[in-house]
């Protein structure tokens, strides 16, 4: 509350709080007057000839609940920061409360993460408990983009298919998650619509999709002469160092229809995997890497 610029707001809050509590008490006490017994007071409403609505005081036990709330608020005002800039006698503050809780949780889980960090990544990927921890982290930090089942979506790679843009070796996965990745496929509109269509047909033929064979043949030439092979490799099997995907498989980041491939080549694609090392620290990145690795167990790396 130190950001009150002048005393006006301080006293404004104190006054408002005090007046509210006093007003509540006054209303409560005013209800406390029991009418002298005799003929019961009625509101004058009569139904069905003899049914009258009485105007009796509220039950005592119920009234006491209200009195207790007034006492509670007075005690609260003394203990906690309620009245303007008064800090309360307990000195409690919400300031730094979150950081304190995070630090406490980190301290509690540190021995566990230290144990995981000391484990070899492949061994951790086979450790049931470690993988479960990794899954929980995954569902907190990664699911929004890669999906709950890690199977990705358009523009977000599937992490469970053992097909890697940036490499599936343990060290490569750790690097990807730690420092993020930036996939850049340059725009090639300058090649002209015809050449781009040829290239799209060639790319489709590589994955065994129906393609115009004449265009595919011309596209193959262009693939090497205009520089596609510089990034995707002469065999079009991709290059991990640049994040250039393998174009010969049936796995697509954006899609394998002719119009989609034409769009990819014409306009290019930019894609970013965020970096996590600074935010999560080495141990959590290690456990997440093991989780990603575990998703691909039993399938051959591509
Ligand atoms: C904001 C969205 C977003 C979040 C959150 C995100 N990622 Fe990614 N991730 C991407 C994108 C986009 C790519 C592809 C980058 C590219 O095309 O170069 C990617 C790529 C990857 C790759 C490389 C895949 C390959 O084929 O080489 C891995 C591994 C990965 N992410 C793991 C994770 C993990 C683990 C987390 C959680 C800590 C995470 N990602 C959170 C968007 C995200
Ligand atoms: C500078 C390197 C570079 C060059 C040159 C390049 N690409 Fe790419 N290409 C990439 C990268 C990196 C990606 C992945 C983009 C991403 O992560 O979003 C990509 C993605 C693609 C895709 C999308 C694949 C999918 O799964 O959806 C196609 C198709 C493609 N490139 C074809 C080509 C063709 C054809 C050429 C030549 C005209 C070419 N690329 C030139 C780096 C390159």
From TrEMBL:
Its cofactor is heme c. GO terms for biological process: oxidative phosphorylation; proton transmembrane transport. GO terms for molecular function: electron transfer activity; heme binding; metal ion binding; oxidoreductase activity. PROSITE patterns: CYTC (PS51007). Residues 129-207, 214-296 form the Cytochrome c domain. Binds 2 heme C groups per subunit. Pathway: Energy metabolism; oxidative phosphorylation. Component of the cbb3-type cytochrome c oxidase. Belongs to the CcoP / FixP family. NCBIfam families: ccoP. This is Cbb3-type cytochrome c oxidase subunit. It comes from Accumulibacter regalis.
């Amino acid at each position: 509350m130190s950001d009150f610029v002048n005393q006006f707001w301080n006293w404004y809050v104190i006054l408002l709080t005090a007046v509210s509590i006093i007003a509540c008490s006054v209303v409560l006490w005013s209800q406390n007057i029991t009418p002298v017994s005799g003929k019961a007071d009625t509101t004058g409403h009569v139904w069905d000839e003899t049914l009258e609505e009485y105007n009796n005081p509220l039950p005592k036990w119920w009234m006491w609940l209200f009195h207790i709330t007034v006492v509670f608020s007075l005690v609260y005002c003394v203990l906690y920061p309620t009245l303007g800039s008064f800090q309360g006698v307990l000195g409690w503050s919400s300031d730094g409360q979150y950081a304190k809780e995070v630090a406490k949780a980190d301290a509690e889980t540190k021995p566990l993460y230290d144990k995981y960090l000391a484990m070899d990544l492949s061994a951790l990927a086979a450790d049931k408990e470690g993988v479960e921890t990794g899954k929980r982290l995954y569902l907190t930090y990664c699911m929004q983009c890669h999906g709950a089942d890690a199977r990705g979506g358009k523009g977000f790679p599937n992490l469970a298919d053992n097909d890697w843009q940036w490499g599936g070796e343990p060290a490569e996965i750790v690097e990807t998650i730690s420092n993020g990745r930036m996939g850049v496929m340059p725009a090639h509109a300058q090649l002209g619509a015809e050449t781009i269509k040829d290239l799209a047909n060639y790319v489709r033929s590589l994955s065994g999709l129906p393609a115009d064979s004449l265009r595919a043949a011309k596209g193959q030439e262009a693939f090497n002469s205009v520089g596609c092979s510089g990034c995707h490799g002469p065999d079009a099997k991709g290059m991990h160092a640049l994040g250039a995907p393998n174009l010969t498989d049936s796995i697509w980041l954006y899609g394998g229809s002719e119009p989609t491939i034409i769009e990819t080549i014409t306009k290019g694609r930019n894609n970013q995997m965020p970096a996590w090392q600074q935010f999560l620290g080495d141990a959590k990145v290690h456990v997440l890497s093991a989780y990603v690795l575990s998703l691909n167990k039993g399938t051959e790396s591509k």
